[in-house]
Design goal:
Blueprint: E1 2-3, E2 8-19, E3 22-33, E4 45-46, E5 50-52, E6 62-64
Antiparallel strand pairs: 1-2, 2-3, 3-4, 5-6
Length: about 70
């Protein structure tokens, strides 16, 4: 999404992170300056969330956002 007033492009990225412990994934929210491409507002920010529920992957009544999916 582009905000023409603040001249900001908002995007979400998916990262695959490999290290000695294995592979992990992360989703990040970016706010980019349209003129320079530089990050704005102290970003990027990793996306994290959880809700009450008993769905697939729930633990103790909590379903946590899975950045892989």
């Amino acid at each position: 999404m582009i905000d023409p007033v603040s001249r900001t492009l908002y995007v979400v990225t998916k990262l695959k992170i490999s290290n000695a412990a294995g592979v992990a994934y992360d989703r990040r929210f970016h706010a980019l300056d349209l003129a320079t491409g530089a990050e704005k507002f102290g970003g990027p920010v990793s996306i994290r969330a959880s809700v009450l529920g008993n769905g697939d992957g729930s633990v103790n009544g909590q379903v946590t956002f899975d950045p892989l999916r």
